[in-house]
Amino acid sequence: MEKKIHRTLARCILMACGVLVLAQCSDIGVRERHRPVVRLAKPDRKSHARTPYAEAYRHIVVARKLEKPVPLAALRHYIAAARLAHDGRDAASLRLYNHAVGQVAGGF
Prior knowledge:
108 residues; mainly alpha; 66% helix; elongated
């Protein structure tokens, strides 16, 4: 009976070590650091003055400036940009949305 408990305990310890080793190897991924993979189109000054796209773009610009000095404020701006760009139905809004969500999920 005692041997069975020791074997079970040994298996649990080995499995826990295996999980820890695999968890260390799982942090491989592609992250956007300083600029998006696809260029974000600047909004037109006349036609996009107060559109959700222009507002989302402004939030991303502000968030990029705040990433290092005030990361929590940058996070708020990325989330706001994602919310605004989510309502857009065009490809440019989708790019803004994907960039904002990627920055939030990737931790800048």
